Amino acid sequence: MKTLTLLTSGVALFAASFASANEDLMTRMDDASQWAIQTGDYANQRYSELDSINRENVGDLQVAWTFSTGVLRGHEGSPLVVGDTMFVHTPFPNIVYALDLNEDGKIKWRYEPKQDPNVIPVMCCDTVYRGVAYADGKIFLHQADTKVVALDSETGEVLWEAVNGDPSKGETNTATVLPVKDKVIVGISGGEFGVRGHVTAYNMETGEQEWRAYSMGPDEEILVDPENTTHLGEPVGENSGTNTWEGDQWMIGGGTTWGWYSYDPEADLIYYGTGNPSTWNPAQRPGDNRWSMTIMARDPDDGMAKWFYQMTPHDEWDFDGVNEMILTDQEVDGEARKLLTHFDRNGLAYTMDRLTGELMVAEKFDAAVNWTTGVDMDPESENYGRPAVVAEYSTEQNGEDVNSTGICPAALGTKDQQPASYSPKTELFYVPTNHVCMDYEPFRVSYTAGQPYVGATLAMYPAPESHGGMGNFIAWDNINGEIKWSIPEQFSVWSGALATAGDVVFYGTLEGYLKAVDSETGDELYRFKTPSGIIGNVMTYEHDGKQYVGILSGVGGWAGIGLAAGLTNPNDGLGAVGGYSALSDYTALGGQLTVFAIPD
Amino acid sequence: MTRPISLLLAAAACALSASALSAADAVSMDDPNIAVDYEEGGRYYTEDGIPTFNVAEDGTVDWPTFSGFRRYHAECHVCHGPDGEGSTYAPALKNSALEMDYYDFVDVVVNGRQKVGAADNSVMPAFGTNPNVMCYLDDIYTYLKAHGSGAIGRGRPAQKEAKSDTFSEMEDACMGS
User: I want to staple B60 with a disulfide (CB 3.0 to 4.6 A). Which of A145, A150, A189, B56 is the partner?
Assistant: First the structure.
């Protein structure tokens, strides 16, 4: 009898926590004093209602406290604040610290996983990690080696572990996870190793795998309903994940899922994008290579796809489609619409109806973008939704062993994963961007499991005939598809932005500055140079009635590798050699959290 | 594909210790680790039989060095930075190619190397089974040496010798096609 009561009470507990998991997290996301999820909220707006730091006083900002993470590598993502605890993560080895905000950031617990260092080189560019997630009293750590760990948020004790991928085949992780309802949604990296991308749901209580949706492959593996899953309003049909590939190439087809995820609780859909098809040599994979480079809307309960939109069919430039999908409710032509806005690596910003997958706007968010003349917006056209490729910049049309020059943007995209923010007050998006172009020469490569599978040689340089810098920080109007204002930056802006109700937008720079600008005009209001270059995302929280702004410094990632020695246009000839602007002249490795406040 | 790799491994095993060069010093083209002694099938060698580069007065580079530029920027630059200049993640190979003995250089690429436990965990992967690297390792080495010694600048070499038939044959045999 005793067992039975135990069991029933166990079941009751279970049910209670199931129902509350999502609500608990949603309540915390709605509470501006906490920063309960990496993306600010499910909509990925990275907007805070806090306004005690504002346009008038932000110039008085000072450092309140700092914390060294003990790791010197690229620090992406941001801390979380849940209740009175701050959770700080590090790049490999992926340490997690729980800091007690009531005791000046005293370390409540720390967790350091043991990982095989052989995963490090498989991670491609640096050992970055975009941070932990919280839900239902648990911290979810997704390690570089793809192990997903649930930790008790009070004690740091391991509650469960699940292994999501195989690093010996090139599967690794850099992304955060998305807790939704009773599940944790998890992606994978490794497109440069011929990994076939997938998204997987684990049970939040037990760590058991519930479903997995591949980016390409047979219908039952990509979780589509050939009749009801749509692409621009049309059913995708049978075998859509294999019939635009030649032979078995889809098995090593890429389309990895290492970006940010968003969720619309009302529509009950999760949104994310898939990465580049593998290899970078387009001649080795004829066809559209579906569903790489695709925005996906799926049901979180069973993974079934509602709609897809492939932005860059048959990629020829490594324009991964993984960047965040920002969900907003805005008025368009007098009508209330549920929108999804996405700033793609390919240099186009897309505005879509997030319920139906209808394409509403597709415009360049950097005037330098030249590989396409634009997207066919005519629903009657057979090329509806396709970008028109400019022959001169087509690495496919120019062919293997030919160097295509002057392509904008470069492979790192007009924007990479560094997330934009949205202010409902201004209805503007604040977007950290790259302003870099490239030469790209594809050639034949052979596949070896666990070895890089790239197949192209690249040279990158600042966008020619522009301000000479490698980045811009822009304000974007997603309804008219226009840049409102643009701040030129010397280096790519690789830091996630934060907009607040105080009419201020924050972002970091690769030299290490935390900057605050006016959300209406872009005028600079504040800057402070932190110990190392910033590739982390700005966050804000309130403690004891006081607003704080936090940012991780620690240069690295793809930006630290590409820009360390500086870039210049090889086509400019020798005269330009003096023009290198080397990041290594401004900053060195680091790993530090800096927290700012207005002095009392 | 097996043959060149086992050859390289054997070469790495009986590593000689040649005199190390400091890259900071100006490098003379007469340096025995650089000076061309003979050419064979479009590839140039020092008197010790170590692969080296050949840059003509008008800037034309030998084909293997050009090939090395391409392969470096496909396989190595994601960690070591553009043009072998180094990055926040890995050392500047344009210097390593001069400072390191050829066989040590090859050994690191074949077998990898780790410095783990430090705050900046550092792992050079083993490429011994990767034909995209192993078939072009001498090319990459001479390219880095050419850039490190200042014989060629940053970026893509403007002019190159034609690919020799010997080079094509060896490439096809190595890549298995």
Answer: B56
Q: In whole angstroms, give the CA distance from residue A482 to residue A364.
A: 8
Residue environment code for A419-453, b if the CB has 16+ CB neighbours within 10 A, otherwise e: bbbbbeebebbbbbbbbbbbbbbbbebbbbebbbb
CB contact, 8 Å: B156 with chain A?
Answer: yes
Nearest by CB: A454 against B75, B119, B156: B75
**b/e for A136-173, b at 16 or more Cβ within 10 A?**
bbbbbbbbbbbbbbbbebeebeebbebebbbbebbbbb
Catalytic annotation, pick one of A24, A318, A320, A344:
A318
What are the beta bridge partners of residue A504?
A: A518
**DSSP secondary structure code for residue A377 in this structure:** -
Q: Which residues of A touch B125 (CB under 8 A)?
A: 118, 121-122
Q: If you average pLDDT over residues A430-458, what whole number do you get?
A: 87
Per-residue confidence at A111, pLDDT binned at 50, 70, 90? Answer: very high
| Cβ neighbours of B1 (radius 10 Å) | 15
Identify each DSSP E strand in A167-320 by its residue range: 178-180, 183-186, 198-203, 209-214, 230-231, 234-235, 262-264, 269-273, 294-298, 305-310
Contact B104, B15 (CB under 8 A): yes
For residue B54, the one-letter residue type is N
Alpha-carbon gap: A63 to the closest alpha carbon of chain B (Å): 25
Render pLDDT for B30-66 as a digit per residue (tens, 0 to 9): 899 999 999 999 999 999 999 999 999 999 999 999 9
Question: Tell me, what's the pLDDT at A541?
Answer: 98
When divided into structural domains, chain A yields a total of 1
Closest CA to A270 of A329, A218, A200: A200
Residue of A nearest to B74 (CA): A457
C-alpha to C-alpha distance for A377 and A72, rounded to whole angstroms: 47
CB nearest to B120's CB, from A72, A121, A558: A72
Q: Which domain holds residue A439?
A: 4-597
B residues 54-83 near A, CB within 8 Å?
A: 69-75, 77-79, 81-83
Using pLDDT thresholds of 50, 70 and 90, give the confidence band for residue A273.
very high
For residue A179, whether the previous peptide bond is cis, meaning omega lies within 30 degrees of 0, is no
Sequential pLDDT tens for chain B (177 residues): 333 333 333 333 333 333 333 344 467 888 999 999 999 999 999 999 999 999 999 999 999 999 999 999 989 988 898 899 998 889 999 999 999 999 999 999 999 998 877 666 788 999 999 999 999 999 999 999 999 999 999 888 989 999 999 999 999 899 876
Place of tokens 């996301």: A29
The one-letter code for the residue type at A152 is: D
Structural domain boundaries in chain B: 30-175
Q: What is the CATH number of domain B30-175?
A: 1.10.760
Sheet holding B43-45, edge to edge: B38-40, B43-45, B51-52
Residue A318 annotated to the active site: yes
For A574, the closest of B70, B73, B153 (CB atoms) is B153
B17 and A CB contact within 8 Å: no
Report DSSP letters for A66-115, one per residue: EEE-S--S---S--EEETTEEEEE-STTT-EEEEEGGGTTEEEEEE----
ipTM of the complex: 0.79
**How far is the C-alpha of B160 from the C-alpha of B63, rounded, in Å?**
6
- In CATH, what number is assigned to the domain containing residue A483? 2.140.10.10
Rounded Cα–Cα distance for residues A323 and A127 (Å): 19
